[in-house]
Design a protein that fits this description.
By secondary structure, the protein is of the alpha/beta class. 28% of the residues lie in helices and 32% in strands. It starts with 6 loop residues before the first helix and ends with a strand.
Length: 244
């Protein structure tokens, strides 16, 4: 069983997300970068919580996800009343060139791109659908924790789900995790996740080689928290701009 086929469990596991704060951060980034934003694409949108909140802020928002179950769940809860949800692959986007002002890929969705082909195919597609000067915002785990167990994971995360590391492939930078979700008074085993590990210099180099310019790297959904060697936050949020 996959959590992406059980949106009600996904919703429980990730209900710790402070979507209001995260959307406020995204809007702050738009302003800091001086980008006028009308259209936004959320890649791997899940149950469309960010799509819904951004749409309520007045943006024209699209979400894309591989899971029809997730989109069906979101539609039934009215989260697509102001936005659009499309079932599709983020390595082959069904949009015309230069269509979006901003693309987002939040909460480790980018880590599902486990091969070089996946990463390059996806980034070429994002570059294609972004207008020149548009932003791409990627949120992945802070890699500090792979060497030093010193970053701070919010307690609310630990209360909602549990991850057990089953395997690490150091050559291909892959982890396999078993995921359990607290559902009511019991824990439900929802299978395994294979995720790629990304490091800042690696990710920034790939982005620059594919035509993006680095704007900033943050350690949390807070524009005052820049990513650094001393950053104890558990996120790595990379903001890049499409350049001509």
């Amino acid at each position: 069983m996959s959590i992406y086929l059980r949106p009600e469990l996904y919703e429980v596991a990730f209900s710790r997300l402070d979507v209001d704060r995260e959307v406020e951060f995204l809007i702050d980034v738009f302003e800091l970068a001086g980008v006028r934003v009308r259209r936004v694409l959320d890649l791997g949108c899940g149950t469309c919580t960010h799509v819904h909140k951004l749409a309520r802020c007045g943006y024209e928002v699209y979400g894309i996800d591989l899971s029809r179950d997730m989109l069906y769940y979101a539609r039934n809860r009215g989260r697509l009343a102001l936005g659009s949800g499309i079932c599709g692959d983020m390595r082959c986007l069904p949009f015309r060139a230069d269509f979006f002002d901003v693309c987002t890929c939040l909460f480790d969705t980018f880590r599902h791109l486990v091969s070089r082909y996946d990463v390059v195919s996806h980034l070429r597609e994002v570059w294609r659908v972004l207008r020149v000067g548009g932003l791409y915002i990627i949120d992945v785990a802070n890699p500090r924790g792979y060497f030093l167990d010193t970053y701070t994971i919010p307690e609310s995360v630990c209360d909602r789900y549990d991850l057990e590391l089953l395997d690490v492939d150091y050559v291909n930078q892959l982890e396999v995790w078993r995921l359990r979700v607290r559902y009511g008074s019991s824990w439900v085993d929802v299978g395994t996740l294979k995720l790629r590990v990304f490091f800042p210099q690696e990710l920034l180099t790939i982005l620059e080689l594919l035509g993006f310019k680095v704007f900033e790297c943050f350690g949390d959904y807070d524009t005052s928290c820049r990513l650094s060697r001393d950053c104890r936050c558990w996120r790595m949020i990379v903001v890049v701009e499409k350049v001509d």
